[in-house]
Design a protein that fits this description.
The protein is mostly helical and 258 residues long. It is built from ten helices and no strands. It has one domain: Orthogonal Bundle (MetI-like fold). The radius of gyration is 22 Å and the shape is elongated. Belongs to the binding-protein-dependent transport system permease family. One of its GO terms (cellular component) is plasma membrane. It comes from Paractinoplanes toevensis.
Amino acid sequence: MLVAIIAGGVLVSYFWLPFAPDDTSGGRLMPPGGDHLLGTDKLGRDLLTQLLIGGRIALATALGAVAVGGILGVSFGLLAGFATRWLDDAAAVVLDILIAFPTLLLAMLIVAGTGASLGTAILAIGLAMAAIVARLTRVLVKQVLGRDYITAARIAGISWPRIVASHVLPNIAPVVLVNLALQAGLAVLAEASLSYLGLGTPPPNASWGRMLYEAQATVLTAPAAALAPGLALVALVIGMNLTADGLRDLADPRRANR
């Protein structure tokens, strides 16, 4: 429900906004009320408008980073799972080195080298996420390949591509999807952190992280400017984590029955 409410607000923002994103006619640091339900920021922009636009960026980052991390991670994990022993060991070492770097630090290095933009932030977070997904996929593929039905399929003359499509991917999909749902929340936090540090989506686009940065100087005189993006960020991340818990229950019949 938390994710659905925020996604619904973001969807509405594509058709209607209370004010233009660059409208500064509302007066600086106005309190909530009247035409400005959440008040205005230090430049006189409507906070609800900025919050809705920031929601677009947060959801776009979550979906984009999960897509990049999922495709690259699952692909690399499948290759590592089918690789020979020494290639598998080399892949495991590479993944361990990448995972040793914190996701935010790795994303900061990539963004700092290529320039700040929403696309760069999504790519950087997705690449950092791909290492985690790849290691999980590699372990799951190894487990599935050791099953008797895989041996039976090979004896029956079924090709490896068909085995991957019919047996491997369907069996690893539930666990991978749960992990990707958890990673989506981390992606939102990472984008907000990058924007707070000035490495995320550049102005004039609003981002919850940059809204927090801009509001920290006036948090005592105009708390709504900091509370609005902060609470929205917390709600979205908690909602994504709870969604991941629900997917985990659906993927595990024993948990669902219990």
